[in-house]
Amino acid sequence: METKIIHPQEIEEAVKAIKEGELVSFPTETVYGLGADATNEEAVKNVYLAKGRPSDNPLIVHVASCKQVTPFVSNIPEKAQRLMDTFWPGPLTLIFKLKSAESLPSVVTGGLETAAFRMPNNELTLQLIKESETVLVGPSANTSGLPSPTTANHVYQDLAGKIFGVLDGGASFVGIESTVLDMSQENGVPVILRPGAITKEQLEEVIGEVEMDQHILTEKEAPKAPGMKYKHYSPKTPVIMIDYQKNNWQEAINEFKNEHKKIGIMTHPEKKSLLNGYDAYYKLSQKYDVVEAMRYLFAGLRYLDEDKLDLDIILVETYPEVGVGMAYMNRLKKAANQKTYKK
Ligand code: TXA
Ligand code: MG
């Protein structure tokens, strides 16, 4: 199959393909999704095949309005309604109890009695969902295990030949996947299963107490979001974190240089100007700024992983684990397999 880059003015082609059960990658503010009609079991099966994704890892159902959620769920708790009013469209995924196990094909939910819903903040994709007259599954449109795609070109690199097309909406401005919040326990405290750009503090401002899944805090206990247990976000080249407090960049570069390693660094220009002996640089942000670092983290990992650079190691800047720093560090730690230089 020849995969097509679909330009915004050609959106009708994407709509037609979705209606025919084809796979079309769509842009969102977080990362690109791999879209298919969530009510079409065959199409959803092909999503898992194209990504090489384990089939017990359930998918997020993307909607263009709150109304599109109601047919599937038993009820929308009042707190959830408030969150939708505040943060939708936006980088927040909510998990609800389904009306019945048959409300959605079990390939979407991984056989669970709950399902995840999100309204992405992207005009083009909202139009795609509306005009397709259905709801769309949308896992990140990468090959399973690799960093998530934040441009149409990233998607093309991973999935060319395997999907109908990529709707090109430019670069994603958040850069990492949505916050996943479990609202399915009737009287329990809502739990963050995956940290994202919408922070615990922001959620608590709207609905009161929210918990962070223990696994995210300790990296030990088995995670509740099935997807969090898999190897994730890693380029082929090993990644090592440089602790912002130790700030031992030059020491790390010197050590790897002595081992005849080719080194890539991801930091900001001011820091870079103080360093020497590295082989490649990716500007993670203009200055030390976690929101910007989050936007370019995956793009940088992909860039420094390109074969032509032939690097042996990628060094990346850490941030304090507060606010959105939780989400940035969650992804970076996975990419680095938890490795910090001399820690
Ligand atoms: O920002 C995003 O959420 C992107 C864009 C494209 O919308 N999508 C995305 O999808 O990241 P995916 O499939 O890569 O991640 C979905 C996450 C996984 O960790 C999965 O295990 C979890 O959500 N999840 C989905 N349904 C669930 C459920 N019913 N219960 C618990 N976790 C669930
Ligand atoms: Mg993913």
From TrEMBL:
Catalytic activity: L-threonine + hydrogencarbonate + ATP = L-threonylcarbamoyladenylate + diphosphate + H2O
Cellular localisation: Cytoplasm
GO molecular function: ATP binding; double-stranded RNA binding; L-threonylcarbamoyladenylate synthase; tRNA binding
Cross-referenced Pfam families: Sua5_C, Sua5_yciO_yrdC
GO cellular-component term (any): cytoplasm
Entry EC no(s): 2.7.7.87
Organism superkingdom: Bacteria
Amino acids binding L-threonine: 30, 62, 178
InterPro entries registered for this protein in UniProt: DHBP_synth_RibB-like_a/b_dom, Sua5-like_dom, Sua5/YwlC_C, Sua5_C, T(6)A37_SUA5, TC-AMP_synthase_SUA5
Keyword Transferase: yes
GO BP terms: regulation of translational fidelity; tRNA processing
Family that this chain belongs to: Belongs to the SUA5 family.
NCBIfam families named in the record: L-threonylcarbamoyladenylate synthase
Name of the protein described by the UniProt record: Threonylcarbamoyl-AMP synthase
Organism listed in the record: Vagococcus carniphilus
